[in-house]
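During the second half of the funding period, the structural biology subgroup turned its attention to how the target accommodates small molecules. The most pressing case was flavin-adenine dinucleotide, which had performed well in the primary screen but for which no bound structure existed. We therefore specified the complex as follows and requested a full 3D prediction, including the ligand pose.
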Amino acid sequence: MVTQKTTLLIIGGGPGGYVAAIRAAQLGIATTLVEGAQLGGTCLNIGCIPSKALIHAADAYHHAHHCMGDHTLGIHVDGARIDVAQTVRWKDGIVARLTGGVGALMKKHGVQVIKGWAHMVDGKTVDVDLGRGDAEPTRIQCEHLLLASGSVELGLPGMPFGGKVISSKQALSPDHIPKKLVVVGAGYIGLELGTVYRKLGSEVTLVEAQERILPLYDEELTKPVAASLRKLGVQVLLGCKVQGLDEATQGVRILDSGAKESVLEADQVLVAIGRVPHTHGWGLEKLMLEMQGRAIKVDDQCHTSMRNVWAIGDLTGEPMLAHRAMAQGELVAEVIAGQRRRFAPAAIAAVCYTDPEVVTAGLGPQEAAKAGLDCIHAQFPFAANGRAMTLESTDGFVRVVARRDNHLIVGWQAVGAGVSELAAAFGQSLEMGACLEDVAGTIHAHPTLGEAVQEAALRALGHALHI
Ligand code: FAD
Ligand code: NAD
């Protein structure tokens, strides 16, 4: 058996693993990264980037269609048609550029990348199947083992993936646009991709078990999204559970909250009911690590319960977001290099790329109250923002939450077109411990959506200018 030795061995080349590799190499740590599929992980290949590419393409197509019937802007479009194969090629081109870029970064930093599936032997030894039909796997021994194997999609019992039942992975590479699409789950993926397919021409029905869409977000934030879905003609069935496929019609059997059963016609069914840490099928159980539910339990330095075994990203549970995985990856490399670091962010912003977009960072009013904080909050509507009017997108608002006693800002929320870009300002203000007066006293460029951020702070202080 071929045996190699390294200081840091990383399992998984997603945003957690590849960022850890870059930072470790920068700090002079000999690093090997094992990836069974493609560098870039879920995020670059079948997650964040391809979904945002399709959202953009669907928006462009939708706008062209809109201009066929609505000439408010003075734009007349005589016809619009989509070549889905070309759209997917364009999306794949972006993915290839980014994953190629990660490969180049690995090379530049001297990270050894091994393409193959890792299998745990013990906390310091991993076998890698290089998939070349070799009689024996390559064995790698390390001082530090970093687990970054990500997450996998949850399936519905009784309705396994296959045939007309698809996951987000297949939905991101369509070979045609189904006439009738049923989407199970109105969370991040269901809403982002359900909206894409509606804009590309499918009749979309969203089936959500809870009583409202995006149940993790506060209701006021999701109202403009629900209104937009109605306007787009997406049917939303709340409080409904999917029972399986109807044998006779191959439609989707659902049970509503009144225990009434019905069948929805569907050419395709996208199941988007959540993701779970990828802990099975690669011998991880041999390490007998302490778990937290289905995730690997880690402390605030991403240590697992075994010495010199670390875990980051989706494998460690919620929030399963790429930027959290990256931040943890960077931290682990620095801790291994001897730096004093703790993972204690003031906030991890979350964005849902619906139409309109939703962004949150820190605490909402109810969360602040639950945490025992006496807070004030104020919101500024985009209906009073000039830039929003020029973008024809006046739905939504920016909200700030701050402590009543010292005005320390503890949270930001926004819903509206393009608000994902406000995540940077929100994150910075929380991380830097800004007070309402800091944001209110900062000159914000005009005309920008960001002026609504300043106005929300001014409003919380009782003297908003434009409302
Ligand atoms: P992953 O990106 O899942 O990477 C893990 C890697 O490990 C994979 O490449 C896998 O092949 C490899 N691997 C696993 N086991 C082994 C093994 N035994 N041997 C070798 N290799 C192995 N997050 C956001 O922040 N913003 C978004 O807009 C967003 N959009 C998303 C859209 C979709 C459709 C999906 C599915 C997810 C989205 N996410 C988004 C979530 C984001 O993709 C994940 O949070 C992020 O990719 C997690 O990074 P990670 O490094 O922990 O794991
Ligand atoms: P999710 O947790 O966001 O949403 C799942 C939804 O399915 C929930 O609303 C839940 O109530 C519903 N549900 C669960 N079981 C159901 C059932 N049997 N019938 C009907 N509804 C049911 O999960 P997701 O949309 O699959 O996304 C997975 C993860 O990927 C997210 O949690 C997030 O971490 C990540 N993601 C992030 C982004 C982003 O940051 N913009 C985008 C996509 C995915």
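Two results from this model are relevant to the next phase. The pocket of flavin-adenine dinucleotide (ligand 1) is lined by residues 11-17, 34-37, 41-43, 47-48, 51, 117-118, 148-151, 168, 189, 278, 282, 313-315, 320-323, 325 (CB under 6 Å). The chain has a mean pLDDT of 97.
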